[in-house]
Amino acid sequence: MDNDTGSVNHKLGRVFNIQKFSVHDGPGIRDVVFMKGCPLRCLWCCNPESQNTFPEIGYIQNKCIGIQECGYCIKACPKKAITNSTVETPKIDIDRRLCDHCGKCVDVCPARAITLFGQMMSVEDVIKEVQGGNASWRTGGGITVSGGELLLQADFVHDLLKECKKRGIDTAIETSGYGDWRELERICRHCNLIFYDVKCMDSDKHKAFTGVNNEVILDNILKVASQFPETPVIVRTPVIPEFNDSWKDIKAIVEFITQLQNLTEYELMAYHAFGEPKYRQLGRKYRLERVKPPKKEYISDLQQRANAILKKKSYK
Amino acid sequence: MEAAAKVLTPQEERIIKGLDKEELTTEEAKNKRQRVNKLLARFRKVPRVDIQRALLFTESFQETESLPVVLRWAKAMENVLNKIEVVINDDELIVGTCGGTGRHSILYPELRGCWLEEGLQRLKEQGAYLVSDEDIKTVKEKIVPYWRGKTAHETYISLLPEETRYLIYGDDNYGASGLMQDNANINATLNWAVDYQKVLEKGFLGIKKDAEEKLNSLDVVDPQNHIQKTPFLKAVIIVCDAMIAFAKRYAELAREMARNEKDKIRKKELERIAEVCEWVPANPARTFHEAVQSQWFTQLGCRLEQPTTGVISNGRIDQYLYPYYKKDLEEGRINEDSALELLECLWLKIADFVPLNATNAKSFWEGYAHFEQTVIGGQTRDGQDATNELSYLILKSKKEFPLHYPDLSVRIHSQTPEPFLREVCELIREGTGFPKLLNDEEIIPHLLAQGATLEDARDYTGCACTEIRMINTSTYMVVGGNINLPAALEMALNDGVLKLKGNKQRLGVTTGDARNFATFDELMNAFRLQVEYLVRHFYIRQTALEMTNAMKLAAPLMSSLHDVCMNELTDIHQPLKGGVSADTGNINLNGFGTAVESLAAIKKLVYDDKKITMNELLEALEANFEGKEALRQMLLNAPKYGNNAPYADQIAREVDAMLLTTARKFKTPNGHQYIKFVPVTSHVGLGVVMGATPNGRKAGEPLSEGISPTQGVDMKGPLSTLLSIDRAKSRKYANSLARLLNIKLSPQVVAGEKGLQDLMSMVRTFCDLKLWHLQFNILNSDILRDAQKNPEKYRNLIVRVAGYSAYFVDLSPQLQNEIINRTEHQHM
Ligand code: SF4
Ligand code: SF4
């Protein structure tokens, strides 16, 4: 059941970024709201700061101006988690095991070398931030809610999208589809466009590379298609070497999605390693270091073959 | 979220593939317009200084000392037009040059002849202009001695109180202090576009006839006639005759060359040239070819007559040439290709003339700055959309013609047709920085508020950098100058003391020790007082310049094409009763973004959050942040203007309101002056001499440009920048204009059909927001960095600097860096 939202919605959600002026996530010029927290752990994830539901601190070493001139964070940390770096002198090290994400170091860091991923924002805060750029709504753009996985904060996302629609802001979501159907159903009611990831048809392999099986995901997308036949769906597949980059893998996905009557586009997204520095910022290890991005020609060949099948099935 | 692949603009692709010699950019164009391609192949980059105009002008002035200035000017023009070398080069269709064959600059010794003595030598050494030793000798011996003590610049300097002079010039009357910077010794007139249509429709014979009739009906007993009207009309008649005679010299030359020409085709062409020059500009143009030739003769005459800021504008070229284009097309005399060929022959003529903007103040006007604004689109006098086939054809030429001439502007309004906007955005996407966009929705109401009629307002043309002009109504305005806003703020922080080039001096007013300011408002007030002090001196300067120019300058040719002058029968430099002095902003403010961000940082860190003290701030600035990096980082990370966030945008609005109010406190004989935000490249030059500023900027770095935020701080995408610019407009009075805004985009942001649509949306948003001006740079910084390292490879890389495009490799390293650093609004 929808809760009727009042004029000012104070419901809180955890957002790790609002990207202004995005031109690749739906029609027009858009603002993308990234929700924090994801039940999947895709090895290639290029937004590792999106995965944990709790706030996290990121540290960008080359922005740090060093302890000789600064060192404010060391003094500010109540947990003694920050110390003079023994390796990268004269900079700092953060012991993530001691850190409880209180954010005190973030407040004092003059260089914004330390940042906090995951601010609590109300629906109203988000609307203000995105509507502040209200000129973009005249330009065929709108808001795209992404993640993380927005289904983990479904209530908030639902209210946000509903509020946007009420104000005439175009809405889109980007989802892995991994979550409760009832939540997804509520959210889809307020969406003008759905980006839906289908990563692999082989459930075991899916689990090995993302941490979860794919049954729920596939089940949900069929439900989306049957319940929201008017809402366009764009299916995306990240093409990851050694995981799903064979034509066999892609073909299986393509054959599956031909049954979606609201499919408007199928997009292959080539693996890239641009997320790697973020792993360092979070003090984590990037596990696909050896993996090379696939060749451009290879991807466009796969895309063409996929399109050929989709066309043959008399899909536009 | 996917990483965008690197997308190159067409310009970048041509460069990387090594296709960077001067030629038309498509095979089809090359085949269809071989003549243009041949002319381009001979195009020479480095201009030569040609001294003919200076010599002939001086020669005449030596003989006319007893005459009124307007007649002296006419006779000098006559001497120049009768004797200057006439040349017709191979393959040319449009003929006429101000200074011989090839690319050239000419000299105007009447303005600042004394500078030439050392200035030419310096130009030669810098290598940006070719000057022969012989010519330098001639200038020193024959030209400078006559003008010493007689130039407009000397009169002007002598009319300035010493305090004012020192604030502007410091120790060098041909340089700049850095606190203010004057363009008065470069150009005579702020900007100009003449009524070309008048020449096309009446011819100079018709204009002369009007003058003769008026002269005959003047009552000779009336003293006002004696003093003013008679000499003016006589001057008009002299220049009309001189213009006609000049064209006839070309007709004769063409005929003679035709007689000796072996090649049958060229022979015919030369005969045609002879016929055209025999007929125009004396008579009304009958064909497109005649119209283009007549237009060129007219602007050539204007270029010889006076140096106007950034050279004379082409005006609304798609409007006044259209009837000739249409008629020729209908009657089968031309087709699209031959029309393009003629237009491009005109572009080549324009490209061959380089305004000499050098002074002793370095890096103020770099890269052969030129603004012969060529305006297309917009509205007709009765408010319809004015776009026609010629507008499209000119856009096409701009895509295919490789030189950054002419400076192209498109007037955008709410009814700009979608297909036209599409073509405009396609051209923007080429990445050459063309066209610049002027917004009718802002400019027309602005002109109405100054008292223009609706028809005249709708018929405005772009002029100079981002300024505007109503060709028959706007009166003349002397050249303006720059005020360095961050320097005013520094004086507010230091009780009137400013450090320039490392020397501290009390240049401003005493506003007290900033350490004792209890509130931010006290600081704002001190800032206001410093600005007011500078603006006051600016007005003193402005009056001195208006007086000087009325005494020293005349422009009978340009005046003969101006309705107000022909009604009042006086030269444009004299006080005029009619007309609208809604001219184009003289108080040019530099470093608006730097000042606003500095104020926002101080408000936040010193007054609101109390994270630092005023004393700490001042010490850090004094030390140029040596050992104070933490403090500098706080300043850098304070709220920034340009992100559509209220904190800094609100301060921008307050500063804007303060500036508009201050500008209205004073008057010159012409009335209140307007403020504008057109740095050209002076924000770099003014930055070089300045110390550190409270926005975290280190000493010597460039100031912010135009109305834009500081380079690199607007991180929330161009729409947020547009909105901030909108918020920063206080709308207190309609006395601010030419708010220059430069947005740089990566090619991938505008790639593909979607990218094109998004770009169109941005332009529509700009139009909706009623912002004055917008220009795009579409490049990526890797390319620019590579161009810095390998200038040879990138000779042809054109970037938009500020209101004009220039070759990237022509710019100084500082300006190159500045362009690289301007935020690249790039999607991740
Ligand atoms: S977030 Fe808190 S606990 Fe963690 S490092 Fe910073 S100050 Fe220490
Ligand atoms: S506060 Fe920031 S800049 Fe200072 S030492 Fe810590 S991380 Fe580095």
From TrEMBL, chain A:
Alphabetically ordered keywords of this record: 4Fe-4S, Iron, Iron-sulfur, Lyase, Metal-binding, Oxidoreductase, Pyruvate, S-adenosyl-L-methionine
Reactions catalysed according to its record: glycyl-[protein] + reduced [flavodoxin] + S-adenosyl-L-methionine = glycin-2-yl radical-[protein] + semiquinone [flavodoxin] + 5'-deoxyadenosine + L-methionine + H(+)
Gene Ontology MF terms in the entry: 4 iron, 4 sulfur cluster binding; lyase activity; metal ion binding; oxidoreductase activity
Domain 4Fe-4S ferredoxin-type span(s) in chain numbering: 55-87, 90-119
A Pfam short name: Fer4
Stretches that traverse the bilayer: none
Cofactor (UniProt): [4Fe-4S] cluster
Signal peptide: none
Sequence ranges assigned to domain Radical SAM core in this UniProt record: 24-310
Gene3D superfamilies tied to this protein: 3.30.70.20, pyruvate-formate lyase- activating enzyme (3.80.30.10)
Annotated InterPro entries: 4Fe4S_Fe-S-bd, 4Fe4S_Fe_S_CS, BssD/PflA/YjjW, Organic_radical-activating, Organic_radical_activase, Radical_activat_CS, rSAM, rSAM_sf
NCBIfam families attached to this UniProt entry: PFLE_PFLC
Protein family per UniProt: Belongs to the organic radical-activating enzymes family.
Record's protein name: Pyruvate formate lyase activating enzyme
Source organism of the structure: Desulfoscipio geothermicus DSM 3669
Automatic annotation (TrEMBL), chain B:
Keyword annotations: Lyase, Organic radical, Transferase
Database matches in SUPFAM superfamilies: PFL-like glycyl radical enzymes
Gene Ontology CC: cytosol
Domain called PFL: residue spans: 31-698
GO MF term set: lyase activity; transferase activity
Pfam families tied to this protein: Gly_radical (PF01228), PFL-like (PF02901)
Domain Glycine radical, first and last residues per copy: 705-828
Domain of life: Bacteria
Record-linked InterPro entries: Form_AcTrfase_GR_CS (IPR019777), Gly_radical (IPR001150), GRE (IPR051215), PFL_dom (IPR004184)
Modified residues (Glycine radical): G803
Name of the protein in its database record: Formate C-acetyltransferase
